[in-house]
Amino acid sequence: MNPGRIGIPPKTINDWRVRGVLVEEIKAAYYKIPAELRGGYFPWFLQNQHILNPSAAETQSNVEGDAMVLRAWRFTGGAETDSPADIRARITSMPQDRQSCYLFYVMLLSKVHPAPFDGLWIPFGFCSCACKEEEMYLGGRYQVLITKCTFDEFCDAFRSARILDLFRKNGINVDLRYLADVLQHHRIRKSVWVLKQFVIQTNKQNPESRMENFIAFDYGFMNCRKDAEIQALKKVYRSFFERHDANPLALHDAAIRGNIFGYLGSLMKLNRKHKGLMKNPYPLPGLYLSEITGK
User: Fold this and answer.
1) Domain-embedded: residue 24
2) Do residues 172 and 219 both lie within one domain?
3) Predicted TM-score (pTM) of this structure
4) Residue 170: other Cβ atoms inside 10 A
């Protein structure tokens, strides 16, 4: 926005800011202009006014959050008269699996899907997607599924690791190469999926680089003595997962065979420091940690 174009001097804009009315005054000024002459920036401003007015953003966020909770509650058969506070209290008393399914419904009915920093990203198989486009595709398949089955059916399928069967039962094809590996191991998952979640998170999403102990054990982070080494190792694994030909199950197999450096070295250029960092205690006779809980 260029204030000069609508005759507002910078001093006036600063005065609005000091008085805490900047957002309202900007909108008032633009609403005086015919819609066809307002340009493309004003619609963007309306969608992002929280940047200049955080308190309004918090209020709006609470309103939108309540609407999402109510929408999912009624969709899953909840009473129309229940308030958002009542619903949240009921949710916290649900068994963990059912609670996860409900929160997933909240997302799906709002046309979004779990992101890598979300706790639902692995359980519902989004970690198996090779790119954002595949994640959107999977989210769309789920959105179709929940219109064809009951919430109880969905919860039962999730609890028993039979979501893929529920897709097939309702005639919905889901063509994702590694999805079955994740969904068929609902409670016990391969550590490579947790590794993927860890390394593709941004530093902002995980500023302290928190990781599960088994990730440090399986993929060499236990060898890191400083943050720079952790970041270097994360970068290598992230580059692997970003490859169009990445095979997470092959990486997992290489890990339990104690051959991470050899496997990744056949796909990308590595240096000697990576070899030391990628060492792990495998293979261990009679002990396979190929499948571990994410807890």
Assistant:
1) yes
2) no
3) 0.75
4) 14
Q: Where does a domain end: 183, 205, 238?
A: 183
Which of 18-32, 148-162, 171-185, 217-231 bottoms out in mean pLDDT, i.e. has the lowest? 18-32
CB 286 within 8 A of CB 256: no
How many domains are there within the chain? Answer: 3
Cα 169 from Cα 12, distance rounded (Å): 64
Is residue 85 domain-shared with residue 152, that is, in the same domain?
A: yes
Q: Is 9 among the domain residues? A: yes
pLDDT of residue 286: 57
CB 158 within 8 A of CB 100: yes
Gap between the Cα atoms of 180 and 174, Å rounded: 10
Q: Would you say residue 203 lies in a domain?
A: yes
| Closest alpha carbon to 144 in 174, 103, 101 | 174
Range of the domain at 260: 191-277
Angle of CA points 47, 51, 57, to nearest 5°: 70
17 located within any domain: yes
- Helix (H) and strand (E) counts in the chain: 16, 0
pLDDT value of residue 228 = 92
264 and 178 co-located in one domain: no
For residues 1 and 68, give the distance between their C-alpha atoms in angstroms, rounded to a whole number.
32
Integer CA distances (angstroms), 77 to 81, 82, 87, 170, in order: 12, 11, 12, 20
Residues sharing a CB contact under 8 Å with residue 126, sequence separation 6 or more, in sequence order: 113, 114, 116, 120, 135, 138, 139
Single-letter amino acid code for the residue at 24: E
A 10 A CB-CB count for 183 gives 24
Q: Dump pLDDT digits (tens) for 95-131.
A: 999 999 999 999 999 899 999 988 999 999 999 999 9
